[in-house]
Design brief:
By secondary structure, the chain is mainly α. The protein contains 2 helices and no strands. It has one domain. Keywords: Coiled coil.
């Protein structure tokens, strides 16, 4: 594996002639901590965004639940009204048939 480091000219002059491996070993823990902190910050931001999205989704689910419950209540009301109208229609048909048969009897005599 090949790693290339790009450093400013002044920094290069300052470390020229020093043991690069020793410098890397010295600075590696700091670099690891920095990377760890960056990763934690990234993950915290990601968690925040996900939590916000979760709240939005929960809100949408609640709205859908309310809509669904209202739709069920409306359906029950409509079915009850349909049954009432069927019963009323059957009663009116029966009355109509009575009147019709009564009129037919009157006309036959």
């Amino acid at each position: 594996m090949k790693i290339e480091l790009i450093i400013p000219r002044e920094r290069f002059k300052a470390i020229k002639g020093k043991d690069i491996n020793a410098l890397l070993r010295e600075n590696l823990p700091k670099a690891e901590e920095t990377l760890k902190a960056d990763r934690e910050e990234f993950l915290c931001e990601k968690i925040g965004k996900l939590e916000e999205k979760l709240r939005e989704m929960e809100s949408e689910i609640e709205e859908l639940r309310e809509f669904y419950e209202k739709a069920l209540r409306d359906k029950e009301l409509m079915m009850a009204e349909r049954d009432r109208l069927r019963k009323e229609n059957a009663e009116l048909r029966a009355k109509f048939e009575e009147k019709k048969s009564g009129l037919e009897k009157v006309h036959k005599t």
